[in-house]
Design a protein that fits this description.
alpha/beta, 7-stranded mixed sheet, single chain, binds copper (II) ion, 2 domains, 18 strands, Quinone Oxidoreductase, Chain A, domain 1, 6-stranded parallel sheet, about 25% helix, 11 helices, about 375 residues, about 25% strand, Rossmann fold
């Protein structure tokens, strides 16, 4: 069949929006009609070349849609089911999945742009097009492994809950699952865009005490306050480490979350914690990034860790967050600044880089 997709052929060039051929789903694969896909910074790392990736590739990994066809042997999902994409699949059988760490699933060891048989389902003029993170959400239709879709309730608006498929769970999960922030704890959040606002919102939900937002853009700090920040620090005009330490009132925060993805912000996040504190890296860094930290920080029992896709159980965390949204306990609509057609996806990335939007959503 035919689909319309946004394809990255060359780094530092705009995405090409074009009609492509979509092959039938193979065994244990499903064909999904996407309804919406959020505009996330991770795709931009491929467009800029900061993160090298085999090209050409259909981008997009924050998608929601409806299952249209299933291949032989598919049992976990049926035609007509509403699904969110799972950019980290979980097979349910490997040691990680059985051991309670499905975001570490062994399927991550396979090439993340191919189906499990080592081929793709997209063609253009005889050329094979890769599937970004085995999702390819910037397309009207896509084929995915059944492990890459998460069934969700049918009354949830797909053009809103698509955000849970990456930014929302990636931002909120580290608070719930990785740091397990207890009530009253002090929290600092580096980076208050479409992911960090979820970290702030989750910290508020669990009853954190001080929630200190750090960014270089005043607009993002204003959004942070709307989502629950109790204090804001503009790192463009003040020393963020000294300010966070001062606001904490105890030499540093209990937990620092880093959602920017640079050496400087990771180091600042660690330095902003007090002895015994924890810093969690969520931001995606350009390839080759290294950090430099005095080991004495760790002798003082600080912990530096990271989080993938919420560090919990994606197949239950995604429906749980959607339930919270549907019952009015979690803000999602407020994260969406713009809804755009696929033809405007390059403009949506320009807006993201300028800091004009929390999240844009591409609608099909
Ligand atoms: Cu993402």
């Amino acid at each position: 069949m035919r689909a319309t997709a946004a394809v990255l052929y060359e780094v530092k060039k705009p995405l090409v929006i074009e009609e492509v051929e979509l092959l039938d789903p193979g065994p244990h694969e499903v064909q999904v009609r996407w309804v919406a896909n959020g505009v996330c910074h991770s795709d931009y790392h491929l467009m800029s070349g900061d993160v090298p990736h085999p090209l050409p590739v259909v981008l997009g990994h924050e998608a929601a849609g409806v299952v249209e066809r299933i291949g032989p042997g598919v049992e976990s999902v049926a035609v007509g089911d509403h699904v969110c994409s799972s950019y980290i699949p979980s097979c349910g059988k490997c040691g990680y999945c059985i051991g309670g760490q499905p975001t570490m699933c062994a399927l991550r060891d396979k090439p993340r742009w191919l189906m499990l048989d080592g081929t793709t389902r997209f063609r253009k003029n005889g050329t094979s097009l890769n599937h970004y993170l085995q999702v390819a959400g910037f397309a009207t239709h896509s084929v995915l492994m059944e492990e890459s879709v998460i069934p969700i309730r049918k009354d949830a608006p797909l053009d809103v809950v698509c955000l849970v498929s990456c930014g929302v769970l990636a931002g909120a999960g580290p608070v719930f699952n990785r740091a397990k922030v207890p009530p009253g704890a002090s929290v600092a959040v580096w980076g208050c865009g479409g992911v960090g606002l979820n970290t702030i919102q989750a910290a508020k939900l669990v009853g954190a005490g001080k929630i200190i937002a750090v960014d270089v853009m005043p607009q993002k700090l204003a959004w942070a306050e709307e989502f629950g920040a109790t204090h804001v620090v503009n790192a463009a005009t003040e020393d963020p480490v000294a300010r966070v330490q001062a606001i904490s009132g105890s030499g540093g925060v209990d937990f620092a979350f880093e959602l920017v993805g640079t050496q400087a912000t990771i180091e600042q996040a660690v330095l902003s914690t007090h002895r015994g504190g924890t810093a969690v890296v969520v931001g995606v860094c350009p390839a080759g990034t290294k950090v430099s930290l005095d080991p004495a920080l760790f002798l003082q029992q600080r912990v530096l860790t990271g989080s993938s896709f919420g560090a919990g159980h994606q197949r239950t965390d995604v429906p749980m967050l959607i339930d919270m949204f549907m019952s009015g306990k979690y803000k999602l609509e407020e994260l969406i600044s713009r809804r755009v057609p696929l033809g405007d996806v390059n403009l949506a990335y320009d807006a993201l880089l300028k800091g004009e939007v929390k999240r844009s959503v591409v609608l099909y």
